[in-house]
Amino acid sequence: AEDGVHYLYYDISSTQNLVQMFSAGTINRDWMKKFLWGMRQVKEELRRYLLEDTCVVFRPEYIYQDLEKNSFFFTYIPYYTGESGFKELLDFVIERMDYKDDCLVEFVYKAYEKYRVAGIEYCGTEMEEDFQRILEREILRRMATPVPPVMSIEAIPAQGEMPPCDRGRVNRDMPGKD
Q: Taking the CB of residue 3, how many other CB atoms lie within 10 A of it?
């Protein structure tokens, strides 16, 4: 309020929460990579300002993404003592991820298991490193997989001709050769 007049400001940017973004869409590997980077950035900013990372709410409706800049915004509630909402976020991702991407599926389910064991401490750098390891392992697996030949060429000698490697030998089965 200024001089007794109240103003209401609207943010008309391309920022949407995750629930809005993925109401009909699929979460893919590229999005996950950007999201994990965004989580790392928020953790670094919190440390920089000596803020508790337990006050970040990870529920999908409280996480926003700017679609133009691909940056993420997380909701920080000072003195928050409730659930982090990270399990809800993982459930949300499991319901909407691209199940054709084996690496993404492997990562999300491993992340879910690690979160179940370690809790919110798992979120951040370790999670991002796990994702990177799975992607690197896939690249190495692809490099090690032999590529089948496009076509196989087999040299078959014409009838009555001797194969090149047998020209010095005498073939008694072929007519006219002694």
A: 4
Is residue 29 within 8 Å of residue 98, measured between CB atoms? yes
Query: Can you tell me the distance from the alpha carbon of 164 to that of 132, in angstroms, rounded to the nearest whole number?
Result: 53
The 10 Å CB-count burial string (b at 16+, else e) for 132-157 is eebbeeeeeeeeeeeeeeeeeeeeee
Mean pLDDT of 120-134: 88
Comparing CA positions, the residue from 31, 5, 2, 28 lying closest to residue 16 is 31
> Which pLDDT score, from 0 to 100, does residue 84 have?
93
Integer CA distances (angstroms), 65 to 74, 101, 149, in order: 9, 22, 45
Which stretches of the chain are DSSP H helices? 18-21, 29-48, 86-96, 102-118, 125-144
CA 127 to chain centre: 11
Integer-rounded Cα Rg, in Å, for the chain is 30
Rounded Cα gap, residues 140 and 146, in angstroms: 12
Confidence of residue 150 (pLDDT cuts 50, 70, 90): low
Q: Tokens 């064991």 correspond to what residue?
A: 117
Q: Rounded to whole angstroms, how far apart are CA atoms 76 and 98? A: 29
